[in-house]
Amino acid sequence: MGTSLTIKGGRIENNRARGAGAILNGGAVKANISDETEAGTKEAQKATVIQGNTSDYAGAIYNTGSMELNHTIIKSNISTAQLSSESAGGVYSSGALFALNSGALYGNTNEDEKNKFTSAQDLLIRASKAARVLPAAQMYDPEVTDAGYFADYRWIDVSKISNKVETGGLEGVKSSDGKYKAIVYDDREIVAKVGDEGFSTLKEALQKAGNGGTIDLVPQKLWELPGPSQYKDFSLHVRRRGISLEGQQRQGTSAKWD
Q: Could you give the strand order of the β-sheet that contains 178-184, starting from the edge strand earlier in sequence?
C-alpha cells in the first residue's frame, strides 16, 4: 500500500487470499475506514462492511502498521490457521496501533481448534502493541435491526484458561498477547469483581486486588476462598453485597467482611 488508505462506505467481502482475507496493512500506514459520523444516525448506514473473507492467517485484516477504523463492521470472516498457530478469524495486529472507534467486530471464526490458547476468534493484539477498541456492548451493526442486540456483549480474552472478561473497551499496551472474542456474556458466571472488572474465580480476583485490596462478591455464584497455603499473610477487604456467607477465618489470611 501507499502512505494512506481511506475507505468510506462500501463492502469488502468474499475474498480469499494468503496473509489477510481483506486488508494487508504491511507498513507505517494509518488507515481510516469510513467516516466519523456519529453512530445511530442515517449516515451510519454508510458503514464499511468487511464480511465473508477467508485467509490462512488473518481472516479480515493483518495489520503491522497503524489502523484507525470508524463505522466499520468486521464479521463472519474466517482464518483457516494454516500459516501459523497464532492466527485470528477477524483482525491480527502486530503494528503500532489498532483502533476500532465505532462499528462492530464479532462473529469471526478461527478454525484452529487444537491451539485455542494461541489463536483468536475476533481479535489478536500482540504483546507491547497498542489497541483502542470500543466496549463490546457499544458495538452496532446497521444490518442488525434488533434493539439492544449488543447490550450483553463483552470482550473475552480466550488466551486465559478462565476466559477473562473485559467489561469495558480494550485500550493500552499489555505485556502479553491479547486474544479476544466478542460474545454474549451472562454476569452469573462472574464470581467476583475488582472495580468494574469481572472474574470467574476468586483466585483471579485476589490476584488482581492484591494485598489490602477490595473485592466485591457477586451473589449468583460463590466459590470458596483459596487457602492460606496460597495467600500467606494476605489482607483482604470483601464486600458481600448482602450475601450470607458461611465463612471461617483461616490461619495466615486476614479478611475484613462487610
A: 23-25, 61-63, 91-93, 123-125, 178-184, 153-157, 164-166
